[in-house]
Design a protein that fits this description.
190 residues, globular, 2 domains, 4 helices
Length: 190
């Protein structure tokens, strides 16, 4: 029975260098608050407000380092709250996705696309993938056992890179549905 650590990825924003300068001031660099499980990724001290047609969500985390495209990852509940479209997509697949405004202490930007609900996924190294018997982009299911809300997640995309560390990522809606709180392990089903 092959198990993988399951982590909850709450709403967050990835920013380009250009957008960091607009939101936080020319020459500003993101301040690392803490490292994340994926090597080289970190949560930042800086926060932004995400503004949609219906409502705003304040103090949304920024994840670093800077990216080539600005992306806002929210749960589908967040998307309804904001009044924005957030198609379920893999990170980086933002073409034709939702729009919003981001407000920082020094400025604001309107993004015409970039709001998504991240497709549930598993990060694996090539060695992990071999051990689990899976390949990059393969779709698997993952069973999570919990008190009163055990659940099998389907449509989990496998992402393989030597830069990754083994972990499955689900959003807050998915974590709540499965009572996936604290340290949680999921069984990969092929």
């Amino acid at each position: 029975m092959a198990k993988v650590l399951v982590e909850t990825s709450a709403r967050h924003v990835h920013l380009t260098e250009e957008h960091i300068a607009i939101l936080f001031g020319e020459g500003h660099t993101l301040t690392k608050k803490k490292d994340l499980s994926q090597p080289g990724q970190f949560a930042c001290e800086e926060r932004v407000t995400v503004v949609g047609p219906k409502k705003s969500i304040e103090k949304v985390s920024i994840l670093g380092p800077a990216r080539s495209a600005t992306q806002v990852e929210v749960s589908l509940t967040d998307a309804r709250t904001l009044g924005v479209t957030a198609p379920v997509r893999e990170s980086g697949d933002i073409a034709g996705s939702g729009a919003c405004k981001l407000v920082g202490p020094c400025g604001e930007i309107e993004i015409s696309e970039g709001v998504i609900a991240a497709k549930r996924h598993i990060h694996f190294t090539p060695e992990d993938a071999k051990e689990f018997g899976v390949e990059d982009k393969q779709i698997v299911s993952v069973k999570i056992e919990s008190e009163g809300r055990s659940l099998v997640f389907g449509d989990v995309v496998v992402r393989v890179s030597p830069k990754f560390k083994a972990a499955m990522h689900i959003d807050t809606d998915e974590a709540n549905a499965a009572c996936a709180f604290g340290e949680v392990w999921g069984e990969v089903i092929l």
